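Morning. Coffee machine broken again, so started the prediction first thing and wrote up yesterday's gels while waiting. Chain of 264 residues, entered below exactly as on the submission form.
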Amino acid sequence: MVILKTKSEIEGIRKASIIVAEVLDIVVPEHLRPGISTGELNHVIERYIRSKGGYPTFLGYHGYPAASCISLNDEVVHGIPNKRRVIKEGDLVKVDVGVTLNGLIGDAARTYAVGEVSEQTKRLMETTFKALYAGIEAARIGNRIRDISTAIYSVIKSHGFYAVRELSGHGVGLRLHEDPSITNFPQGGRSVRIRPGMTLAIEPMVAVGTWEVLTKSDGWTVVTKDHSLAAHFEHTIAITDDGPEILTVLEGMDLEFNRFFLPV
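Came back before lunch.
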């Protein structure tokens, strides 16, 4: 069942989402360099969230052992940070963060290129980023969830990449994962009508070589089946009478794509 949020709840989700955006758009870029371990980066993320009065939503969720998901290269999502996994120049790093503040949740992800990467990697990142914003643009009252999926998929397909099919976006706010599911490719059957008060986590996950994925022996980390590179961008949005409103964004930073290429 889709949970429609009150204005007060949306304002609370916004506050949690701002902490998420601060983590992903300020804290992570300040620390993500060759030589830092994913465990160290996770510690920095958790410390910042708690300093703002929030709780890292992922920590303990179905037993997940960390405050963030940090996935490298062929890892699509849910990479478990550890102190032995050291970031190297040329890595493609996906950081996914959730924050719970006063019982309300924001959720978002960014993909960062650490130092020089190939042109194909740049195209993968840009395609995923554009797919995210195409999906957000389609999230308008009167449309259906399928329209979001179609918009995302159209961008991905037009650039010759693959939309991961076993993972999807979702409702968010009172719980980390709520209805509806938002796939990154169009499906048949009934589709939920988009209504004001919905809060959604839209998150295209895109791979170079295949849409098929596998889960590693840790039970969490999802990798592409052919071990090709993958990218992931995510925002939490609210559906309003004036259109979709991005909550996990800092003023003036939402369309600055070049900031995801980090110098070394």
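The helical segments are 7-31, 38-51, 119-138, 145-158. Going to sketch it on the whiteboard this afternoon.
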